[in-house]
Amino acid sequence: MIASLWLGVLALLLRGVCAVTIRSKYNDPDTGLTFSWSYEEYILSTSYFSFRTAQAPEAQNGDNYDIVLQIVAPNSIGWLGLAFGGSMVNNPLLVAWKGPTTAQPALISSRWADGHNTPKAYPEANYTIYKQGTKSNNTHWQVTARCQGCTSWSNKGSPKYINPKGAQRIAWAFSTSKPSQPANVNSAIPYHGTPNYFNHEFSTGSNTNYVTTVQKLQVLG
Ligand code: HEM
Ligand SMILES: *[C@@H]1O[C@H](CO)[C@@H](O)[C@H](O)[C@H]1NC(C)=O
Ligand SMILES: *[C@@H]1O[C@H](CO)[C@@H](O)[C@H](O)[C@H]1NC(C)=O
């Protein structure tokens, strides 16, 4: 009984799916925004990434409201993908990777998958990367961007919404290999390893001064 329990735990660890999510609030010195912060530890807790979101208090469930998001990810990954609807197919996919030059520190590609194959471009959601909060060091890279079109979409004609006053299941996946054209958001991207999931609390990212704070940020590039 005990032995089989340990074998089960071992099997989980070997699959690398034993991710731990820590949910918190993050007061960001770079942008002045307060983010809802999901901190995701994975691969025997040796790696982590952070996903953070902020929105205006006026955002309502049923709106296609803007968010500012922030991602911190290890230099060791080739790309990180986040699926706003909690699965690969029929929802907005964000694919981010570290850029090839200091002038292009990070890229975010807006994608959509109709099936379990390479996602195509998804122009209904778009990303504006900000200078503030976009940087890297020896271990991690970070990107801060506004997304228009990430909080609502149509799944085969059925409208879907992220409730800004609640939690949402987000799916994620990554590859250790880089996109073949790292300077191009339309690059081909290699297949990922085992996907994973976490519940992200959007309500914590409500910012009273959202509009004025975001207006002060400078667009990169
Ligand atoms: C690069 C091209 C991609 C290919 C060829 C691909 C292929 C696949 C395949 C074959 C599966 C099924 C695997 C299984 O059931 O064991 C799968 C599952 C999954 N993929 Fe991808 N994928 C790609 C990109 C992405 C991206 C960019 C994301 C997220 C942003 C993503 C998220 C997921 C998730 C969450 C699952 C779990 C099952 C599901 O939710 O449908 N994939 N993928
Ligand atoms: C490296 O950069 C990441 C992303 O900005 C940051 O979270 C981390 O604390 C930094 N590490 C060090 C040692 O400064
Ligand atoms: C970005 O997406 C939003 C929401 O779908 C849309 O209203 C806007 O026109 C898009 N902007 C660009 C430049 O594509």
TrEMBL record:
SMART domains: DoH (SM00664). Residues 79-175 form the DOMON domain. The keyword Endoplasmic reticulum does not apply. InterPro entries: Cellobiose_DH-like_cyt, DOMON_domain. Pfam families: CDH-cyt (PF16010). Residues 1-19 form the signal peptide. It comes from the Eukaryota. Keywords: Signal. This is DOMON domain-containing protein. It comes from Schizothecium vesticola.
